[in-house]
Amino acid sequence: MDVDLANSITIYDTTLRDGAQREGLSLSLEDKIRIARALDQLGVPFIEGGWPGANPKDVQFFWQLQENPLNHAEVVAFCSTRRPHSTAAEDSMLQAILAAGTRWVTLFGKSWDLHVTEGLKTSLEENLAMIQDTIEFLRASGRRVIYDAEHWFDGYKQNPEYALQTLLAACRAGAEWLVFCDTNGGTLPHEIAQIVREAIAAIHPIEPQAQFGIHTHNDSDTAVANALAAVQAGVTMVQGTINGYGERCGNANLCSLIPNLQLKLGYPCISDEQILHLSQTSRFVSEVVNLAPDEHAPFVGRSAFAHKGGIHVSAVERNPLTYEHIQPEQVGNRRRIVISDQAGLSNVLAKARTFGIDLDRQDPVCREILQRLKELESQGYQFEAAEASFDLLMRSALGQRQTLFEIRGFQVHCNMIPNPDNPYARPDSLATVKITVNGQEILEAAEGNGPVAALDAALRKALMNFYPAIADFYLTDYKVRILDGTAGTSAKTRVLVESSNGLQRWTTVGVSPNILDASYQAVVEALEYGLLISNQLPLVART
């Protein structure tokens, strides 16, 4: 799509403030700095850093960025209007805002008369004075102001004349942006579009220099749609968070908004080079905040361009447009062919190509791989979530799976006797493994804070001298699922282990009625696969 540079949209990120209000999400000072630098690199022009004065951590954040500024982005301090029946110059909270040293300040004020009378317990006239006085004080102190009209849509529905007066008060006092906020997240796209158009039409003849923005919450699962509707109705700033983090149901997701605006609607937001890092930024932020990435997130999720059904795979192999709305590479993602019990021969051939091998459809080994895949999946294995194990399965079928080590046996002992001196201490576990490497038999033991940790440690200890690369491997995720719960304690268990060497991630699977045996299978394959990719041993077609 042709992009009109004069029609650009300004992106405003509030992950570090509004996003941090998500339940279960907590950011350290270092976390905030790392995320801010990632957003700066992504090309986000405005980064809301927090509310200095309300949070000591935010004060330190702004101070640190004064000493080591970002390269491009404007860091924005956030605050509210002054208190009723006082002056902005006397408000200690506003002094903390000035001390943050930012060029820009985002100020929020009340748009809804209900909030003014019931929340602030003051008059409608005093609320207008609070907005005007606070913005004039900030402008006189050399700050540029973005005004967030809190509860704008609810306020406009209830009392449109008064809601418009609050915007005019902010604009006349010197606010450069007027942002419509759907704070409760209950407004739908058609309402957003209509109200935004009406508000802009009312304000622009009086204050033609005014610029407008949108800030939406996802309580009705329409935050992204609402923001897009507002843009098409005339706003030129979009506020949101990476991965849609935020209070309650979250905020508008910038990882969906940016590609929809830029790639679908032709509104430039960041550069073509920067949007290539969108998926990477999404995953980076999820790692920093210690929340599992949403694998099914549009555009940036691992499954966003995953194809599982055999008919789909066959069509995508011929022309990706058949089942993909954009090229995954445009947002830094990639196409994935999923292997499962629903797979056809096309899946196997396509998946093999992702590992760098072109199999001949007529080669009997293709049918052998497919048959083995379906047999194992019927037993409870899940290869769509464990691609490393599928790679090893292919290598076995092709006769290319090297024997890097052989397990002769292992034992795991757990000490469940309570410690009277520390009743909260975790039970100790001890694992003993016997392996053979290059004809040499090794017996090693190691302790861990659980049986799987002890087994993993013992294996690493036994193999480290032969394969030093193992020192760089670490477990990033461990999932256990009971496959047939009606079988009680004899139920079959599936274990998925995700590992990394700092550069790559891979997942392996094990299945057994014994959870330790299933874990052992997955851990052993994780070490084996890590060594294979560390040595860069490619699959090759059979001759």
TrEMBL record:
Provenance organism: Geitlerinema calcuttense NRMC-F 0142
Q: Where are the transmembrane segments?
A: none
Pfam families linked to this entry: HCS_D2, HMGL-like, LeuA_dimer
Name the record gives this protein: Citramalate synthase
Which gene is transcribed and translated to give this protein? cimA
Annotated InterPro entries: 2-isopropylmalate_synth_dimer, AIPM/Hcit_synth_CS, Aldolase_TIM, Citramal_synthase, LeuA/HCS_post-cat, LeuA_allosteric_dom_sf, PYR_CT
EC no.? 2.3.3.21
Give the family from UniProt: Belongs to the alpha-IPM synthase/homocitrate synthase family.
Keywords for the protein's UniProt record, in alphabetical order: Amino-acid biosynthesis, Branched-chain amino acid biosynthesis, Isoleucine biosynthesis, Transferase
Record's keyword annotation contains Cytoplasm? no
